[in-house]
Structures are given as structure tokens and as C-alpha cells.
Amino acid sequence: MSPSIPKTMWAAQITEFNKPYTISTVNVPPLRPNELLVKIHAAGFCHSDIQVLRGELNSPLPLIPSHEPVGTVVQVGKESALNWKVGDRVGILNFKNACGNCAGCRGSRKRYGKLDPRFCDHRETGGFKNDGCFAAYMVADSATTILLPDSVSFEQGAPLLCAGATAWGAINKARPFLRTGDMIGVVGIGGLGQLGVQFAKALGYRTVAIDNRDASLQLTDDMPTEFRPDFIINSTHDYASEKILERTGGEGLAAVINCADSIAVNAWSLGLLRIGGVAVLLGLPPEQWRFDTHPIVFRELVLRGSYVASRGEVEEMMAIVDQHGVRSQLTVVTKDDILRVPEMYLSRSFRGRLVVKFD
User: Fold this and answer.
1) Residue 198: which residues within 8 A CB-CB, separation 6 or more?
2) What is the pLDDT of residue 32?
3) Which of 226, 228, 235 is nearest to 258 (CA)?
């Protein structure tokens, strides 16, 4: 290990489910040849981090949480030296170190023409089953690391590694069914939805922002004018469905991007779709999805799942962010606030996306 890199580091850890994080001193992780050591400058916090804290994902303990890391490369593994250097500003995707041999790896090669680590049966997942980024340093797989454009700050970059990648991946799932100018509904205007609206507008689609909370819908007020939705609707209001359908001449939306995990809201959203419309499902409710088969069959709807975005898709997303100036609404806290971050999230005492800045 380089003399400039300490042997130990601070880290927040989950040592017991449903209990506050503990602040610990742990060893700086060693590098494998394909890896990079990244000094973390900012990290995001989202709903799945709450699921990890509650034990819903059966994560091994102790575990360093959070899976939206950005920082600078401070050490490069031997196999990574051709493409990466010390000082690079990067974001780290939460799937890494694919085995290359399992059924998932073989299947991804057949489907996409190359290995896609998202589907490896033995992949590591930072912040879920393996240590994440609420720490001074984190190890990244060079194959699933993304250069951060100079125009994107560390604070803005962090949410892009999960919320951004998830919203972008969902829109990509819908794009084969869409034409420029089609109207997309984005259901749930939180960390994912606010980015989904902007991505859809940047790609030339019209949008309707849908949520059951006026406070969430107000996030769209702070978007650049060109990215604001064409229509905003609170789904609890009378005649919400009728008002949305009116905007499409009664035909229905071309797609809905469901960022909420409410079973009822997702089922309701299918009634907003046109013939052949597509619903992309992102939420992970504790119960199984339930949908009315009538509109699915008689309007020939398409239901798509979407598991974040591939490295190639995220690179495409970063280019759009850089070109168009897509930005999240953020609440930024410091490392000293890290123990109360889960409480802040659950109490909704923040605006937009919650990000911890480490320096």
C-alpha cells in the first residue's frame, strides 16, 4: 500500500439491524488487480438504504452502508492502469466483480453481446451485500466505474449512481415503444422521479409529473424551465385520471415510469396508458404486485422491470447530464450528521435527494 494512504480509516457501520449506525475504525480495503481505491467525497442515501438497515435484504453484518459513491482515484490496480489514473473523478456503480462464468454472465453475453455485471449470480453489491461508501475509502471495480464530468460536482454526482441510473435505465426500457413528442407519466416525484422528468424532457418527450404529495410535486418548481413537466397532477385529487387522459386527447400516456412502490398506485397507473403503452416498474414493495388483467390484455400493455442501468447506459446518461445540465434538488449534510441521516430520511425532513459530503 502506498505510504500516502493510511492503513485504517473511519467508517459508519450497521452492526445491528434497526439500530443507529456505529462509527468505527476499520482497515483500508486491499486492491485486486482489476480494482481502484477511491477516496470518497460524497455519498447519497435512498430508500434501499433503509431496507438494508431494517434487515429486509438479509445483508451480512457488520456492513458499511450506502451505494451512491463519488470521489477521486488514489490507487490503481495493475490491470486497471491503462484506463485509469490517480486523480480521476469517478462514480462507482453498486454491482461489481462479475465472475464471468455463471448462468447470469453467460445469459447477459447472449442478450447484450457482452458481459453485463448486473446479472452475475455472484456479483458484489456495495452497500447491500458488501461494504459501501459511508467511509473514507472504497474499492471500485474498474469495469463498473464511471468518469464524472467536470461540470458535475461531487454532491450532484452521488445521486446519479443509483437514482439517476435507475431512472435513466427505466426510460431506456420504454424508448423502443416511444416516438419523439410522446407523453410519459413519471409516478413518484422524489429522488428518482425528479431526474426521470428531466431525462425524458432532454430526450424530447412530453411529461406529466404524478405524486400524491404536493410537497413532492413542488420539486419541479426548481427545475430549469426547459425540464419542467408539461403537466403536474396530484393523484389523490378528484378526476386525476380524467385530467391526465384529456392531455392526450383521450388516448392515454405512451409510458409510465413507476418510481413508487405502492401496489395501489402502480395498478392505477395502468389505466392511464394508451393501446400498446408500457409501464416500467421500479419499486420493490414487501408484497407481490397485483394488476388488473383487463387493461393489460385488451389494451395490449407492456410491463417491464428495470434493474438500474448498465455501465454503458450510465456513460450515456452522464453525457446527457453534462450536455443539458440535468440537476437534482439536494439536501446536503456533513459527515458529522451521518448518524441522523436515516432519521432525516424517514421523517422526510429534507428536500429532494439526501447527500452526505465528506470534505
Assistant:
1) 223, 227, 324, 326, 327
2) 96
3) 235
What is the average pLDDT score of the chain?
95
For residues 43 and 152, the answer to whether their CB atoms sit within 8 Å is: no
Cell of 97: 466483480
Contact 169, 110 (CB under 8 A): no
CB 61 within 8 A of CB 129: no
pLDDT at residue number 2: 52
pLDDT one-digit tens code per residue, 106-147: 999 999 999 999 999 999 999 999 999 999 999 999 999 999
- Name the E strands within the chain: 8-13, 22-27, 35-45, 69-76, 89-92, 95-96, 124-125, 137-141, 145-147, 183-187, 206-211, 231-234, 253-258, 273-281, 302-305, 330-334, 353-357
- In terms of DSSP H, where are the helices of the chain? 47-54, 103-112, 154-159, 165-174, 191-202, 214-217, 240-246, 263-269, 293-298, 311-324, 341-347
**Which domains does the chain carry?**
8-162+309-357 (3.90.180.10), 166-305 (3.40.50.720)
Q: Any long-range contacts for 110-114 (C-beta under 8 Å, 24+ apart)?
A: 112/310
The pLDDT of residue 62: 98
Three-class SS state of 269: helix
Write the CB contacts of 249 (distance below 8 Å, at least 6 apart in sequence): none
CA torsion sign, 129 to 135 to 141 to 147?
positive
Closest by CA position to 74, among listed 140, 160, 24, 143 = 140
* Calpha distance 34→127 (Å, rounded): 20
Q: If we measure between CA atoms, which residue out of 85, 86, 83, 104 comes closest to residue 95?
A: 104
CB 290 within 8 A of CB 267: yes
In this prediction, residue 284 carries a pLDDT of 82
What percent of the chain shows pLDDT beyond 90?
90
